Amino acid sequence: MDPAASLQQQAIEFAKRGDFGPDAKRVNQQLAEASPHNLGAWTRLARCCIELGQLDEATVAVDAALQLEPQNTIARNMQGDITRRRMQASAPAPAPRRRAAASSSSSSPRSSSSRSSRSAVASAGFGRQEFTSLAHLPPPQALEALGPRLEALLMDVNERPFAAKVAEARNRAGKSGIRLFRRNSFRAPAPGQLEAFQHGGRWEPQINLGWSATPARAMRAGIGFNFTPDPSDPEGELGLERLHAQYARFQRLVAADYRELLTRWMEANRGFIQHGSDPPATDLLPRQAVQWIVETDTAPARGWVFCGRWLFADRADDEETLADGGRLIRWIDQTFTDLLPIWSAVYRG
Fold it and tell me: How far apart are alpha carbons 181 and 335 in whole angstroms?
């Protein structure tokens, strides 16, 4: 086997395992030297250096990647990551947080149920290593590497009460399935992206979960409409027609019954809309986002419309939620429990 090909294979195996330690650095460094035009070798090398705290070497690798592709989002994100880490390293250490008194936690009516539900959750979270793997692996390898983690998460989501209500609503409409998610319900629609939605929900308002590594490391949970045509699907033409009708119903319901409720929910829960291939529209205030939903008749032409909550891995509190399986399940559960009335009203027509 060609030495460069062997190094490439080893580098991808390290990335699939989320391993960006010394051995992965050595392999990617050798690969970058053997194939200086290999963009992936430079970005993986930069990630290894970042994880090892070698920020000067990381800067050199990022610069090499940007010389090959100046607009590469992975390299640009790492450039920002390096800058933030340099600033954190030079900043004074914050005062330690004081732990809340035990009596305050025991006084909460939800504390005992939260502890019991957390202990029952078998899935792991989706932390820094997983986002790094998603950023660096081609879609098939990303699915292979991250699939078991997503599968465990979706199977745990199936056990939440809202999931049974979604399945029941679909059954009443003549759709099959007693579970919200079946195994292998996740897919990689594009490099650096993963998503999952309810079984049979391609041409329905989707109970949608999504993960993106670029342009920002983030996770979404909410209601999505995928208007992208699919000529290979025998039901595609009729399904798309139904979906357009359901989205129009969604607009009417939000305008007539849910405008204020949805606006307040988005204000309280850091909710954002997303459309097309754009990142979440964080520049829109919740009232503006809801107005966009109600008034933008050309939205389906963008191919994708989403309304829901987001977790951003560059925020410390969000990163903690993402990395903790129990907290992440509760966040998903609360999101869809809140949005279920709107989804149900749209679905049943």
Answer: 16
Q: Which domains does the chain possess?
A: 3-90 (1.25.40.10), 124-348 (3.30.930.20)
CB-CB neighbours of 149 under 10 Å: 19
> In the sheet where 186-187 sits, what is the strand order?
186-187, 193-196, 206-212, 218-226, 304-312, 271-275
From the number of C-beta atoms within 10 Å of its C-beta (0-12, 13-18, 19+), residue 117 rates as middle
Please name the amino acid found at residue 216: A
Helix, strand, or coil (residue 187): strand
The model's pLDDT over 159-189, given as tens digits with 9 standing for 90+, comes to: 999 999 999 999 988 888 889 999 888 999 9
pLDDT in tens, 264-307: 999 999 999 999 999 999 999 999 999 999 999 998 999 999 99
Distance (Å, whole) CA 186 – CA 207: 12
Quote the pTM value. Answer: 0.72
